[in-house]
Design a protein that fits this description.
The chain is an alpha+beta fold. It folds into 3 domains: 210 residues, Aldehyde Oxidoreductase, domain 4; 148 residues, 2-Layer Sandwich (Aldehyde Oxidoreductase, domain 4); 313 residues, Aldehyde oxidase/xanthine dehydrogenase, molybdopterin binding domain (Aldehyde Oxidoreductase, domain 4), CATH 3.30.365. Helix content is 28%, strand content 22%. Helix 11 packs parallel to helix 12, helix 15 packs parallel to helix 19 and helix 18 crosses helix 19. The longest helix is centred in the first third of the chain and has 28 residues. The protein starts with 15 loop residues before the first helix and ends in a 16-residue tail after the last helix.
């Protein structure tokens, strides 16, 4: 499938100073948080700016995120999307905390596409990704709630002819402390709407929080249980047709021919749509379309990559990694120190292409009329998706209407809009609304994959095994170069070197560089923490190797390198304590430990595994300690760590996309395995109480568990896993 570059040259900040600047529309100042956490304020648009953005009108609309009607109903326009990570619970808690309302009674509405008003301030566009949902909204949405509260209190005080300071808000009402008089928000909205919007309002002190920091049930659970929650695939419109699509099975291939007559002979098939590198069969229901596609028997020109294999790509990466790359970090003189070290340690780590394999396969419903284009989809980037459709159709922004839905899993796959573009291309040839569906096989074989990475690491150690110098060369694809070229700084893709250039250990002589090499024709994309997953696995595995060479305990070896990183040291030691590190285990069992610092969070994990004589590996127990600063909903954090651990274990044990004769070999969950429910280990999550700036939690849990697992395998079997997935490696040892 052809991938498209998007012009985000105006998206990425030009400098750190620009990145922290207050936006032109706003009343918020930027806030830099300690210890690597970052909170950026963005402006609350004036009423005049949001009239075309909000989907309905209420009596009181103090900003783009809140509406309160005369009944007191509070509607929150959600700037980020829910894809299973809990944002539709945690994020409303921020508004409800400052507005003093019951979060269970807040109505949630998807925000419309608008990269200005609903911008993710940490990224620069309207996007849910990068573990930024809480980090990016923590201050702005609290400010939005507090602003509305202040205006309502002011309106009540004016009616009572008292000072606002004599009143306070609680449970959707304004209370006059001296007399106990109360007015519900609904009775105050008309008066509040006439007041000027204050530019600066005080936020609560953490000691006064009622919601933030307390567990709260998921607000989206009931709808998912009773079926009322709507995902993109649930879209149904009068007269809607269904299309099943097939793209060229080889990268860069083209459609040559098909049997249209046989396809149309299938009962229920209404149309065949030909595209250059794909075909879609349209029917009155999905089964007809699927059967029609099989009958069409499309034939393909394999194109320029007909002989491409995984081995070819690995050979190219291995060759490229022999040459110096673009420096991402250079402290001291690692080469000189290594030259005079007692011993040089070297290792190569490889990590495969990975598919996203979200439970909801790719789908999109499109209706094109003379008036414009309506799209029903689940996307992490509604603004960018709208822009892509405008480019395809030539329509104006107001003519392209994105109706966003819950996502049945994203993991970065729905940061891309290729599926929507494909659906629009098909809909341009179909009368009436059409839902374009990808089968599971099509979804896996035409994903945009996490890149294959090839890492070379070296360390110079003294006679005791202490590491004196460290070098790390990363060879692989650059997602950022395609997705947002402006994010490339000094020739370095910041995502590709994440977890490596900023690794947590205190090496005074360290050199990290990056060699960009794109796999021929293979589209790559973000995958639940690309650089962090790759970097953490390589770094934590190699540190473990150094500890083994020094005949030192892996925990103690790490702790000695963390004197300048107290938060990292604390989570590492606490994870070991939680797991009873050092306690004797039965034969064939062992524990491994790993550390991950990224997205403003500090995470340590211990994994206990068993191995048997035939090479079977079974993760038995995982302990996770997370310091993610201020916690909004502890239940969300625990759930994200648990899901990240399962996701990461699946990838480390089984996850691998391989290519043969220019096409992906895997087709479904039979050969692209995830952990079965009976294979999931016991998971214990411990959350560190902290007042540091909020950190991200969606991706680092996945990153940390992979090396914790493989380090445990080494401790149990003596087999060092340098290439993922683990697969059959122990059986062939």
């Amino acid at each position: 499938m052809k991938t498209r570059s998007i012009d985000t040259s105006t998206v990425a900040p030009a400098s750190r100073r620009d990145f922290l600047a207050v936006t032109a529309t706003g009343a918020l100042g930027a806030m830099a948080a300690a210890s690597g956490g970052l909170l950026l304020g963005f402006g609350l648009p004036a009423r005049a700016e949001i009239r075309d953005t909000l989907t309905t009108q209420s009596a009181f609309e103090p900003n783009a995120f809140l509406r309160i009607d005369r009944t007191g109903k509070v509607t929150f326009v959600m700037p980020v999307i829910e894809m299973g990570q809990g944002t539709y619970t945690s994020v409303p808690m921020l508004i409800a905390e400052e507005l003093e309302v019951d979060v269970d009674k807040v109505a949630i509405e998807h925000s419309p596409p608008d990269d200005k008003i609903y911008v993710n301030p940490l990224i620069g566009v309207q996007m849910t990704g990068g573990s930024t949902a809480i980090r990016g909204t923590y201050i702005p949405l609290r400010r939005a709630g507090a602003t509305a509260r202040v205006m309502l209190v002011t309106a009540a005080a004016a009616r009572w002819k008292v000072e606002p300071s004599a009143c306070h808000a609680e449970n959707g009402q304004v209370v006059h402390g001296a007399t106990g008089r109360r007015l519900g928000y609904g009775s105050l909205v008309d008066a509040a709407a006439k007041l000027p919007v204050p530019e600066n309002v005080a936020l609560k002190e953490p000691r006064d929080f009622k919601l933030i920091g307390t567990p709260h049930r998921r607000l989206d659970t009931s709808g998912k249980v009773d079926g009322s929650a709507k995902f993109g695939i649930d879209s149904r419109l009068p007269g809607m047709k269904f299309a099943v699509v097939a793209a060229s099975p080889t990268f860069g291939g083209k459609l040559v021919s098909l049997d249209e007559a046989k396809a149309k002979a299938v009962p229920g098939v209404t149309q065949v749509v030909r595209l250059g590198d794909a075909v879609a069969v349209v029917g009155r229901h999905t089964w007809a379309a699927k059967q029609g596609l099989a009958a069409a028997n499309p034939q393909w020109d394999a194109g320029p990559n007909a002989q491409l294999s995984t081995a070819d790509i690995v050979a190219q990466l291995a060759s490229a990694s022999q040459k110096p790359g673009v420096p991402a970090r250079h402290d001291g003189d690692a080469a000189a120190v290594m030259a005079r070290a007692a011993r040089r340690m070297d290792a190569v780590y490889e990590q495969p292409f990975l598919a996203h394999a979200a439970m909801e396969p790719m789908n999109c419903t499109v209706h094109i009329t003379r008036a414009g284009c309506d799209i029903w989809v689940g996307t992490q980037v509604p603004g960018l998706t709208q822009a892509a459709v405008m480019k395809v159709t030539g329509l104006k922004r107001e003519q392209v209407r994105i109706h966003n839905h819950l996502l049945g899993g994203g993991f970065g796959r729905r940061l891309e809009f290729d599926g929507t573009v494909r659906a629009v291309q098909i809909a341009q040839q179909v009368e009436g609304p059409v839902q374009v569906l990808w089968t599971r096989e099509e979804d896996i074989q035409h994903d945009m994959y996490r890149p294959y990475y090839y890492d070379r690491l070296s360390a110079g150690v003294d006679a005791t095994g202490k590491a004196l110098a460290w070098t790390h060369r990363i060879a692989g694809s650059s997602i950022v170069a395609r997705y947002s070229p402006a994010w490339i700084k000094n020739g370095v893709d910041p995502d590709a070197v994440d977890g490596s250039a900023n690794q947590p250990y205190g090496f005074s002589d360290i050199h990290v560089d990056w060699v960009a090499l794109e796999p021929p024709g293979v589209p790559t994309a973000f995958w639940r923490g690309v650089g962090m997953t790759r970097g953490t696995f390589a770094v934590e595995s190699f540190v473990d190797e150094l500890a083994a060479h020094a005949k030192q305990d892996p925990l103690a070896y790490r702790v000695a390198l963390l004197d300048k990183n107290p938060r990292a040291k604390a989570v590492l030691q606490l994870a070991a304590q939680q797991a009873d590190w050092g306690k004797p285990l039965p034969a064939g069992q062992a524990r491994g430990i790993a550390l991950c610092t990224g997205f403003g969070s500090y995470i340590a994990q211990v994994v206990q595994v068993s191995t048997d004589k035939d090479g079977t590996v079974q993760p038995l127990h995982a302990w996770c300690v997370v310091d993610c600063g201020v916690v909004v909903n502890p239940d969300t954090v625990s759930a994200q760590m648990e899901s990240g651990i399962v996701f990461g274990l699946s990838a480390a044990l089984y996850g691998e996309i391989t290519i043969k004769n220019g096409r992906v070999e895997q087709t479904n969950f039979g050969d692209y395995r995830v952990l079965r429910i009976n294979e999931i280990p016991q998971i214990d999550v411990h959350i560190v109480k902290s007042l540091e700036a909020p950190g991200g939690i969606g991706e680092p849990g996945t990153s940390c568990v992979m090396p914790a697992l493989t380090n445990a395998i080494f401790a149990a079997s003596g087999k060092r896993i340098r290439k993922l997935p683990v697969g059959e490696q122990l059986r062939t040892a």
